[in-house]
UniProtKB/TrEMBL annotation, chain A:
This is Pyruvate formate lyase-activating protein. Belongs to the organic radical-activating enzymes family. GO terms for molecular function: 4 iron, 4 sulfur cluster binding; lyase activity; metal ion binding; oxidoreductase activity. The lineage of its organism: Bacteria, Bacillati, Bacillota, Bacilli, Lactobacillales. InterPro entries: Aldolase_TIM, Organic_radical-activating, Organic_radical_activase, Radical_activat_CS, rSAM, rSAM_sf. It comes from Vagococcus elongatus.
UniProtKB/TrEMBL annotation, chain B:
It comes from the Bacteria. Keywords: Lyase, Organic radical, Transferase. The keyword Transferase applies. This is Formate C-acetyltransferase. It comes from Vagococcus elongatus. InterPro entries: Gly_radical, GRE, PFL2/GDeHydtase_fam, PFL_dom. Residues 21-654 form the PFL domain. The modification Glycine radical is found at residue 758.
Length: 260, 782
């Protein structure tokens, strides 16, 4: 049985996928998005220590897939009445693909809706191994300029696109692209343009737009890390609406936070 | 917020886009003046009582009520379509010195400035009270009887605040009269029936007493007919003349005949309720399943082409009138039941006697009307079950989203089997409704004394721990054993005490009018207080489940498993109130041990086991009406005063701090995993046991219920609640910011309704402690 490093299990989430859901946050991510709101999940699949309100805490706990399944099944009754289920998020779920596979396959067997949130930053075999047990992929699309993508977040765009395109074609899997709207980084004129042009190649109906927020900022303090975006302003409603309209003028329904 | 109109398949309902002017005037007038105490009922009652010396108690009582109905000043207020006001001045509190003449003496000069539910008491009335009423009732009230009967052991337990006995100073209430029967038969039917029975069985005073009151009800109706006629003569506005003439004609008809229209049915319903109020000055004479028994009248009026706006307006009038009756409580009682829970509880929907869903177009209309009225009463409830139409569920969610705490939800899937387990027939169990705040009862058939006592389980844990300090070889099992012994002992006493109160009502305050409208009383020829009703219960609330789970979990883990400190040291820490060398312990026990409300079996099972023990113990007792004692689990607002009775506890709660609110809710701020985990924790108590009723508060951020998706996910959440077999849940949907601002600027928030516990009250009417408590209850974000 696989063990996975989990840093949070959040019950009663309605913002990430259909129905009432539990989100399992897996530790470890190879990317370095400066706006990351879960910085404690970054880097290796190893526990990390932070200091919160003067108290040391270890973030990340090794759990077997059976333990995680037991935990998420505590809310089974809510998944059944709402059509909800379990979302594996991160970190980057593909960092712990073997563990993820065990969790997803068991939940899938039980008829519980499964979703994963990924950036698709590994060779496509990893994602491919999860898709037979996955109902929905929330696919993060961030920066589409090859050089910028490598430089700012450290992602290999070729991998990402291969994964994205494979997921789109995979039978029975719903793919929802999610675009974080970060001023100066992703929410630029050119980047939005590139994303729209890329999406036009596929049969995509809906995208989620995730406007920048500062909710994660105190976590950088706990970790003693520098947070580059601490003075970054959030987007105004008008700016968000303009971006939404741009997507919609090209036939993509743009759902803010996935809440609409 | 858009109010969706009901679609045609459910009967068309015209949702009014703007506030109806008549409803607005009536609402405004209701709250224009300061609340006052009226001694009129007390004076009339006493005057009659003086004339009937030597007659049987029930006849004296009936004659006193009749005398009130024949002589009390009556009024028809501006815009009213329904006749019947308990007092001329809106929202007056009435005294019933025949029950308890004492408390008001002590509180006479503070009642207009006390922290909760103030009333004006005029100097003139105070004088009359002191000179005429008090001397007459002193030493011959119901209270004197009760106090005289209480044993030393019960008095010690009361002094130790292990339990509280309720309704020792006012009518029992917590009952629903058989409204469908009186609506079907009319007043004269009862007069004729009782006349015959009184002649056949002259030795049975019950029939004669009933006859006296029903005849007085007829006379009371005719007095209103006379008043309406007189007012019409001088009324300048023509439309109002027509209305007054209609009132006259209707009151005349209903003084004998059964109603034929929706309007007439509401009039008879209201008058029945008012007569009941004059008789018992009761804590909550509830209304039951209004959408069910009024539906035939509603349908008939619709079919006859009566404009929907008119039906809406009359029902609006009825809604407003339920806020006119407020209960005058002593200061300590007002603390426990803050903000005037009068108990005009109404349930909508639910399973019918065929086991099918019973939601109808009137159910929708009654919820929609509430969107316009937005007052604390009637206290609407919706019955949840697996068959509830999604459309009605969404309408319910929309109403909850208004943020006023109305409606509260009751779960057929657990309440019906609960009643079956107590010998209630399937048909009757399916017909249950709510009384008081959250108690459940079978309408028209039950005298349930649903609010007879509060039993503080946490206080027992505390007593046990102190008693066992210094025990050699102390174990966790030893503690549990001691707690169980104490529960056994005090349950015996609370049952005995409740029976004394029960007998007090029998000997001093029988209720012949009410009893005629409770099934089997006529058949048995007995008043409800004599045990005439079909179902007879006494409901004792077991309180403190959350704190008790949290506390015993700390004892078990910290003392007996981790051996961090000895049992005696923990008791010392409690005694020190977490001060001195134990100061840092408080945070340790709060932070480092899991708490009830987080879906941890090990913690949740503690309360489940102790509550089960308590329930099984209580159920062994039979009351003086050969009915069973049944357990409940709610505090209403009593978690604050009951907390004052308990010293520091092992869960980190300091001495005197409140207990967990509501009854089954987790301790404030200790649930960290959101509302699904709370529901799971609550579901582990065996909720089939709380046949008397239980209470769960949940607080949601307004954001989480936003939009179509938010509403639907909330509806799904409620379906899970239904499947989890939890009896009750109610919601506060106000942001913390709004409530804090209302505390600072009460003048801007006079209409802000919030959920207290089983009922809603105006936020600004509540004292600061309860306001703070409501603010602190965790906001769950979806």
């Amino acid at each position: 049985m696989q063990k996975g490093l989990v840093f949070n299990i959040q019950r009663y989430s309605i913002h990430d996928g259909g129905g009432i859901r539990t989100i399992v946050f897996l530790k470890g991510c190879p990317l370095a998005c400066p706006w990351c709101s879960n910085p404690e999940s970054r880097k290796a699949v190893e526990p990390v220590q932070w200091i919160k309100n003067g108290k040391k805490e270890i973030i990340g706990e090794w759990k077997t897939s059976a333990e995680v399944i037991d935990e998420v099944l505590k809310d089974e009754i809510f998944y059944r009445t709402s059509g909800g289920g379990v979302t594996l998020s991160g970190g980057e779920v593909l960092m712990q693909h073997l563990f993820a596979k065990e969790v997803l396959s068991e939940l899938h067997y039980l008829g519980i809706n499964t979703a994963i949130e990924t950036t698709g930053c590994f060779e496509k075999e990893r994602l491919e191994s999860l898709l037979p047990f996955t109902d929905e992929v929330l696919f993060d699309i961030k920066i589409l300029d090859m050089t910028q993508a490598k430089k700012v977040i450290g992602i290999n765009l070729k991998n990402m696109k291969e994964n994205f395109e494979m997921a789109l074609q995979f039978p029975g899997v719903k793919v929802t692209p999610r675009i974080p709207l970060i001023p100066d980084y992703t929410a630029t004129e050119e980047n939005i343009e590139m994303i729209i042009n890329y999406f036009k190649n596929f049969d995509i109906k809906e995208v989620h737009l995730l406007p920048f927020h500062q909710y994660g900022s105190s976590k950088y303090d706990y970790l003693g890390w520098e947070y580059l975006l601490k003075d970054m302003e959030t987007l105004s409603d008008t700016e968000i609406d303009q971006i939404k309209k741009r997507f919609e003028s090209h036939g993509f329904y743009a759902n803010i936070e996935g809440l609409e | 917020m858009a109010i969706a109109t009901t679609d045609k398949t459910q009967g068309s309902v015209n949702t009014m886009s703007k506030v109806n002017p008549r409803i607005q005037i009536m609402k405004d007038n209701l709250f224009k003046d300061k609340r006052q105490i009226s001694i009129e009922r007390a004076l009339l009652y006493t005057e009659s009582h003086k004339q009937t010396v030597g007659e049987p108690v029930i006849i004296r009582r009936a004659k006193a009520v009749a005398y009130i109905l024949e002589n009390v000043t009556i009024s028809i207020r501006e815009g009213e379509l329904l006749a019947g006001n308990r007092t001329v001045r809106p929202r007056s509190g009435i005294l019933s010195p025949e029950m308890d003449p004492y408390w008001i003496i002590e509180e006479m000069d503070t009642i207009d400035s006390r922290p909760q539910d103030q009333f004006e008491f005029t100097e003139e009335d105070k004088k009359i009270y002191l000179e005429e009423l008090y001397p007459y009732w002193e030493n011959q009230s119901m209270k004197d009887f009760i106090v005289g009967q209480l044993t030393d052991e019960i008095n010690d337990a009361l002094k130790d605040e292990v339990f509280k006995l309720n309704q020792t100073d006012k009518g029992q209430g917590h009952i629903i009269m058989d409204f469908p029967a009186i609506l079907e038969k009319g007043v004269q039917y009862y007069i004729d029936l009782l006349q015959d029975l009184a002649e056949e069985q002259p030795e049975n005073d019950f029939f004669l007493a009933g006859l006296i009151v029903f005849k007085a009800m007829k006379a009371h109706f005719l007095r209103y007919a006379g008043l309406a006629e007189k007012m019409a003569e001088t009324e300048p506005v023509e439309q109002r003349v027509t209305e007054l003439k209609k009132i006259k004609q209707m009151c005349e008809k209903l003084s004998t005949e059964k109603p034929d229209t929706f309007y007439e049915a509401l009039q008879l319903l209201w008058m029945t309720s008012i007569v009941g109020q004059y008789e018992s000055n009761a804590s909550s004479l509830s209304l039951g399943r209004m959408d069910q028994y009024l539906y035939p009248f509603y349908k008939k009026s619709q079919d006859e082409g009566v404009p929907e706006e008119f039906l809406y307006e009359v029902l609006g009038d009825f809604y407003i009138k339920t806020n006119d009756v407020v209960l005058l409580r002593s200061e300590s009682s007002a603390k426990c039941f803050a903000g005037f829970p009068t108990g005009y509880t109404v349930v909508l929907g639910g399973i019918d006697s065929f086991g099918r869903d019973s939601v109808n177009s009137l159910s929708y209309m009654m919820l929609e009307l509430y969107h316009e009225i937005l007052l604390p009463q009637p206290n609407l409830s919706v019955r949840m079950n697996e068959l509830i139409p999604r459309k009605f569920l969404l309408k319910t969610c929309e109403t909850i989203r208004l943020g006023t705490g109305i409606p509260q939800l009751f779960n057929d899937e657990v309440i019906i089997p609960g009643f079956l387990s107590k010998g209630v027939s399937l048909d009757d169990a399916r017909d249950f409704a709510t009384v008081g705040c959250v108690e459940v009862s079978i309408p028209g058939k039950t005298y349930g004394l649903h609010d007879i006592a509060l039993f503080n389980l946490l206080r027992i844990v505390e007593l046990s721990m102190y008693e066992l300090r210094g025990t050699k070889g102390m174990t966790y099992e030893r503690l549990l054993e001691n707690i169980q012994q104490k529960i056994q002992y005090y349950v015996g006493l609370v049952a005995e005490g409740s029976d004394i109160v029960d007998l007090g009502h029998r000997h001093y305050a029988p209720t012949p009018f009410l009893s005629v409208l409770i099934e089997d009383c006529i058949k048995n020829g007995k008043d409800v207080t004599e045990g005439g009703a079909r179902y007879n219960f006494s409901g004792v609330q077991g309180i403190g489940e959350a704190n008790l789970s949290d506390s015993l979990y700390v004892v078990k883990k910290m003392v007996f498993e981790n051996k961090e400190m000895t049992f005696d040291e923990l008791v010392d820490a409690m005694e020190s109130n977490y001060s001195g060398k134990y100061a840092s312990l408080q945070e340790h026990v709060i932070q480092d041990f899991d708490k009830y409300g987080n879906d941890n079996d090990e913690v949740d099972d503690i309360a489940a086991e102790i509550f089960r023990f308590y329930a099984k113990e209580l159920e062994k007792y039979q009351n003086v009406r050969q009915g069973q004692f049944i357990p409940g689990a709610y505090t209403v607002s009593a978690h604050i005063p009951l907390g004052e009775a308990v010293g520091a506890t092992p869960d980190g709660r300091k001495a005197g701090e409140q207990l967990a609110d509501g009854g089954l809710s987790p301790m404030v701020g200790r649930d960290r995993l959101g509302p699904t985990a709370v529901l799971k924790s609550v579901s582990k108590l065996d909720n089939y046991l709380t046949v008397n009723g239980s209470l769960l508060n949940l607080k949601f951020q307004p954001n989480t219920l936003k939009g179509h998706q938010g509403l639907n996910k909330f509806a799904d959440f409620l379906m899970a609640f239904t499947k989890l077999k939890i009896q009750h849940v109610q919601f506060n949907v106000q942001s913390k910011e709004t409530l804090l601002d209302a505390q600072k600027h009460p003048e801007k928030y006079s209409g802000l309704l919030v959920r207290v516990a089983g009922y809603s009250a105006f936020f600004v009417d509540l004292n600061k402690k309860i306001q703070d408590d409501i603010i602190a209850r965790v906001e769950h974000e979806l």
